[in-house]
Task: structure prediction
Amino acid sequence: MYTENALAHVIQDESVSGAGKSVEQIAAAAREGMEKNRICLIRDFALDPDLYLAFLGEFGEPLMNYSSLSALAKTDPHPQINRVKYKKKAEGAQSVHYVAGGLRPHSARSWRSPRPSHFAMLMVEPGWREVPAGERGESVVVSWHDLFVRLAERDGEVFQEHFDRLSATPITFEANNVREELSSLPLLYPLADVRGPYDVGVRLKQDLRDKIVGIKDRIPDFEAYRTSLDYLLDASADEQFFACFPLERGDLLLLDNHRFAHGRLKIVGEYVVDDEARTNNRELWSVTVH
Result:
């Protein structure tokens, strides 16, 4: 049901092959795709942390990963790479990178100033594929421009009211376990190289609905703002707007972090067979780039 999305077709049909090419050659081809679509899929990329970071270095500075900036346990392959892999929780807090289930579409480092320019995902091990579709951790991306155009057509003045409020209200919120310099931009913020009235940057934390309750005294006309935020969150989590597809081993997805949200469908973390617990070995390396 997800492959009918036009963006999902574009991403896959216009993918770049990394087989037998140097990092510089792959980056040059990816740069063309990014210029056209603001998102690019590279197939058959080497599963090598250094080559991955060298490639991303062609687009900016890879940031230190979440775990290195928090007190949570970490087993990452490199200080700039987040390992996203299911881990059974023992006790206490756990990184979002280790949980099962789905992840709502969100922006990388949504709280951070300055805003990171890119986000990347490299699939190292796709994990279980015998589970039903929709439970394999299929990757999800949402184009904010496409979403806003469709909402404007569908909801008219209602959409415009929410869009204007979220574009005009500065807001500052923190991460759950990471401490970085905080942004005070509105959730919808202007970009220098716009391509239309709804081509804006968006910074959206997946649990922002709960997060804003703690800062409501700093948000003018809080109830109206919460209504607009609910509208945005509900729309961004509506599967009809998803570009969704499974990443295969060696697939590298690079996206404009201003213009796209990323997430995933549900993954099954473990199940029991003949009284033996088996753990999903799905593993993805994510990196945020400034």
Q: What stands out?
A: Residues 23-37 form the longest helix (15 residues). The CA atoms of residues 123 and 284 lie 5 Å apart.
